[in-house]
UniProtKB/TrEMBL annotation:
It comes from Pseudomonas sessilinigenes. PANTHER family: CYTIDYLATE KINASE/PANTOATE-BETA-ALANINE LIGASE, PANTOATE--BETA-ALANINE LIGASE. The keyword Cytoplasm applies. Keywords: ATP-binding, Cytoplasm, Ligase, Nucleotide-binding, Pantothenate biosynthesis. The reaction proceeds by a bi uni uni bi ping pong mechanism. Homodimer. The gene is panC. ATP binds at residues 30-37, 149-152, 178, 186-189. Pathway: Cofactor biosynthesis; (R)-pantothenate biosynthesis; (R)-pantothenate from (R)-pantoate and beta-alanine: step 1/1. This is Pantothenate synthetase.
Amino acid sequence: MNTVKTVRELRAAVARARSEGKRIGFVPTMGNLHSGHAALVAKAAQRVDFVVASIFVNPLQFGAGEDLDKYPRTLAADQEKLLQAGCHLLFAPSVEEMYPDGMAGQTRVSVPQLSDGLCGASRPGHFEGVATVVSKLFNMVQPDLAVFGQKDYQQLAVIRALVHDLNMPIQIIGEPTVRAADGLALSSRNGYLSEEHRAIAPVLYRSLSQIAQAIREGERDYPKLLAEQQRQLEAAGLRQDYLEIRQAQNLRPATFEDRDLVILVAAYLGSTRLIDNLHLNLDAPA
Ligand SMILES: Nc1ncnc2c1ncn2[C@@H]1O[C@H](COP(=O)(O)OP(=O)(O)OP(=O)(O)O)[C@@H](O)[C@H]1O
Ligand SMILES: CC(C)(CO)[C@@H](O)C(=O)[O-]
Ligand code: BAL
C-alpha cells in the first residue's frame, strides 16, 4: 500500500488504476483507526478492485473549544491496519494541501435541513465542514463508490443528500456500526475515556436497545420512553446532549404511525462527547 500526501500524486495513482480498468472505492477517515474503519475498507475491497482511504483531521468541521488539537494522530499504526484490511492507497494530506488558500475564503457546501438539529444543533457549522471536505475529497479521488459508517447516522444522511443534490456519480454505502463486546460503538474518541468512564459508556447502547424493545412491544408514548432513559443516562453519570426518535429515511421527527425509525443519542462522559444510534424498522423481521 502506498501513502501519498499531495493531490497530484493521488490523481496520478488513481489514473493508473483506472487505466488498468479498475473500479475505485473510497473510505474517508480522520485516522486513529479501529475495527470499525477496517470494516469499511473490507466492504470497499469486496466491491471494487482499488481501494483508496484518506486520513485527514479536517479543521473546518471542528468548532471552537472542540478537540481538533488533541485528536489522536497515529499514522504508522493506521497504515498497518489499512494494509491488513485491503487498502491499496492512502491519501494523508496536510491542512495546507487541502486548503492551500486558507479556510476563510473556501467555497462551502451546505446541506440545509438535514444538517440542522441533532449533532448540527450542538456543533454549529460541523456538517458544512464535513460536506465541504467530503465534496473536495470526492472530486480529488472521483471514486465509483464510497463507504461510510452508520455510527455517524446524520453524517451519512448529509452525504447521501449532497451526492444526490449535486449529481455526483458516486454510490454511497452505509456500513453497520462495529461494537465492542459490551455494546459500546467503537470510536476514536473512546480513547479519551478513563477506565471508570469506559465502564459506564455501554449504557448508551443499552438505553437505545431498551427504547427499541419497548417500541417493538407496542409502546408509543415516546416522550415518556425518552424521559425514562434520559433519567437512566443521567443516573449512570452521562450528561445528555440529545436523545431522539426520528424517521430513519429523512431524520424528521417520528410520529406514532411511523414504522421505519432511528433512535439517536449524543451524551457527554466527562468532557468526551459520544454518539450512537439504533435503526428500528418495525416492518422488518426482528
Ligand atoms: N464503530 C464503527 N463502525 C463502523 N463505522 C465506523 C465506526 N466508527 C466510525 N466509523 C466510520 O468511520 C468513518 C470515519 O470516521 P472517524 O474517522 O471520524 O472515526 P470515529 O471513530 O467515528 O471517530 P470519532 O470518535 O472522531 O467520531 C466514518 O464513516 C464513520 O462513520
Ligand atoms: C467523513 C469525514 C472523514 C470527513 O472529515 C469525518 O467526518 C469522519 O471521519 O466521519
Ligand atoms: N466522526 C465524525 C467526525 C467528527 O466527529 O468530527
